[in-house]
Amino acid sequence: MQRSNKRNYRKGSKTTKSWLEQRSLTVMVWPGPSPDLNPIENLWVHIKARLVGRKFRSNNQLWEAVRHEWKSIDAAHCKRLSDSLPKRLSFLRKNEGKAISYSYVH
């Protein structure tokens, strides 16, 4: 049996644990989603940083600003994020899977 290892799922309900035990099923240890391993998360941080402090009169105006910032991201920035994956993996291993600061991989 495999399930997410997000904190709120790790404990599980008593009913679920009982059901698994009755069937002698073992739950695989599986990491929860990690923004440290997902370059798109870093792109969203970049976009959010560019929008901080700006005021928008409507959701549509905000959406247009997000689209503008998204289009302004160059391929070299994306390549740096992709190329940094081995380094991020190394930092995560050293940090025993706990979140890392992205500033460490630049």
UniProtKB/TrEMBL annotation:
<dbReference type="GO" id="GO:0003676">
    <property type="term" value="F:nucleic acid binding"/>
</dbReference>
<dbReference type="InterPro" id="IPR036397">
    <property type="entry name" value="RNaseH_sf"/>
</dbReference>
<dbReference type="Pfam" id="PF13358">
    <property type="entry name" value="DDE_3"/>
</dbReference>
<dbReference type="InterPro" id="IPR038717">
    <property type="entry name" value="Tc1-like_DDE_dom"/>
</dbReference>
<feature type="domain" description="Tc1-like transposase DDE">
    <location>
        <begin position="13"/>
        <end position="62"/>
    </location>
</feature>
<protein>
    <recommendedName>
        <fullName>Tc1-like transposase DDE domain-containing protein</fullName>
    </recommendedName>
</protein>
